[in-house]
Amino acid sequence: MSDILLCDRRDDGIAVLTLNRPHKLNAISYALADAVLAALDRLETDAGIGAVILTGAGDRAFSAGGDIPEFSASVAAGAEAALRDFVRRGQAMTARIESFGKPVIVAVNGLAYGGGCEITEAAPLAVASDRAVFAKPEIALGMPPTFGGTQRLPRLAGRKRALELLLTGDPFPAARALELGLVNAVVPHAALMDTAVGLARRILRHSPLAVRSILTATTRGINASIGEGLAMEAEQFGRMVPTADLREGLDAWMARRTPRYSGR
To answer: DSSP assignment, residue 59?
Structure first.
């Protein structure tokens, strides 16, 4: 089994990336985290791709979290090695997913434990199979989450609800993830990928420049004061004013026709 991130399909402006370690429940090894970062770097500059779907291979797991034997070796080598090899790599991966200039939709097809849950928290959008199960089990290993879970989960779910999950490590079903704001929808397992693709296509109807500006303003502004956030929103609008896409959107609306965006 190859320990890589696969680009399974690039069709109609959508790239589908699959975590391909089903024999390890798609645990996130160092090589897999690096592959996620490299794939996103390639896709960011690919003008033919407007959205990315990230899912897991097999029917059991999206990702069961970090590769414990691998990071255990880093822990044994000391704090400096563990921070460099494991924590910074994982945080870089989730930050890249969170701030990516094109929408990343996570399709949670099974277990989303630890790092798998943190990827879901970081992604702008997520759809879960009704078979999906989530957990923050790091406390059972004697450690806190390290890919952003102590920060993003409270911002999504609220401090008390997040702390219950972080401090108990108890698993919770997809319906609870929906209630907490971790996912946008829960669908029958067989409909998962069609739902994710459908969501991506609904976004691809619009200007890619406008999509990027909304993602940027939201991601940068969500943890800022309202005044700072409004300034970021205004900045992104200002960047759109001279574009052909804004002119086309306005002209199409006034002519009551479907816009034809050029991404310029």
So the answer is: S
* Catalytic member of 44, 118, 228, 233: 118
**At 68, is the pLDDT very low, low, confident or very high (cuts 50, 70, 90)?**
very high
7 has a pLDDT exceeding 70? no
Provide the token pair at 114: 């630890």
Tell me what the mean pLDDT of segment 10-19 comes to: 92
- Give the pLDDT confidence score for residue 247 in this predicted structure: 96
Non-local (6+) Cβ contacts of 205 within 8 A are: none
| DSSP-assigned letter for residue 126 | E
From 26, 5, 27, 33, select the one nearest 17 (Cα to Cα): 5
80 counts as catalytic: no
Q: Would you state the torsion angle of the CA atoms of residues 127, 42, 221, 33, taken in this order, to the nearest 10 degrees?
A: 70
Distance CA 115, CA 159 (A): 19
Q: What is the pLDDT of residue 5?
A: 66
235 has catalytic annotation: no
Q: Are 52 and 43 in contact (CB under 8 A)?
A: yes
- Give yes or no for a contact between 73 and 29, defined as CB atoms under 8 angstroms apart: no
Q: What is the per-residue pLDDT across 85-109, written as a single tens digit (0 to 9) for each? A: 999 999 999 999 999 999 999 999 9
Catalytic residue among 98, 138, 228, 248: 138
Buried b or exposed e, range 111-135, using 16+ CB within 10 angstroms: bbbbbbbbbbbbbbbbbbbebbbbb
